[in-house]
Amino acid sequence: MVSLPIYDRTGKQVDTYEFDVNELAQRISKQLLHDAVVMYQSNLRQGTAKTKTRSEVAGSTKKMYRQKGTGNARAGSKRSGVRRGGGHIHAKSPRDWRLSMPRKAMQMATRMALRSKFESEQVILVDDFQCDVPKTKEMVKVLSALSVQGSTLLFTTPGYDVNIYKSGRNIPGLTVLPVSDINALEVLKPRKVVMTRAALDAFRGKIAAGNQEEK
Fold first, then answer.
1. Angle of helix 197-214 relative to helix 103-119, nearest 10 degrees?
2. The whole model's pTM is what?
3. Which of 102, 137, 189, 200 is most buried, judging by how many CB atoms fall within 10 Å of its CB?
4. What are the residue ranges of helices labelled H in 57-173?
């Protein structure tokens, strides 16, 4: 059981939030977290790197000079990889770097990652956070009041909120995501996670709904 303070926009504690972290995951598997992070990072790779082999570069395939009698080392065509302008000896070719994991494994990895943040006391809860209009200055003010300005942060909202997203997109190190889009990599990458009370309630609701489906 953990008891977390809930802060308002000015950094003042207004309430506490208590829940059992075992709801998120019974334990933390470092191997599962590693596999999930490797998968997400690998899937970010474009796989479009391409260089030309000696058969693809422009140039004649004629032997540059006769084999013997010139005093030079024997040489084939100017496309050889040891010559300037020649093809690459171990050329790169496009490839698909995508990896996959079972859906339940990815969900469990996200829950384990969030539990690790709670155990490390790197989660900050804020009361209902609303922005009527996009305003980066206001977001900076709130982060400064929470004493997290300058750290890499994940700001989690219960749903898509365009105003909050636009208020934070120009702040270095800050990522704003709805709770439905977070994954193990997005949770583990930043130093701290800022969640609204509604976002944590929504995440716990998803877990409860999933447990009911399994039954």
1. 140
2. 0.84
3. 200
4. 103-119, 136-145, 162-168
Give the three-class secondary structure for 74: coil
pLDDT one-digit tens code per residue, 139-171 = 999 999 999 888 899 999 999 989 999 999 999
Query: Six-digit token pair at 75?
Result: 């040489």
Nearest to 160 by CA among 139, 145, 182, 192: 182
Q: How far is it, in rounded angstroms, from Cα 155 to Cα 124?
A: 10
Cα 127 to Cα 10: distance, rounded to the nearest angstrom:
11
**How far is Cα 128 from Cα 163, in angstroms, rounded to an integer?**
14
Q: How many CB atoms lie within 10 A of CB 148?
A: 22
Q: How far apart are CA 212 and CA 122, in angstroms?
A: 29
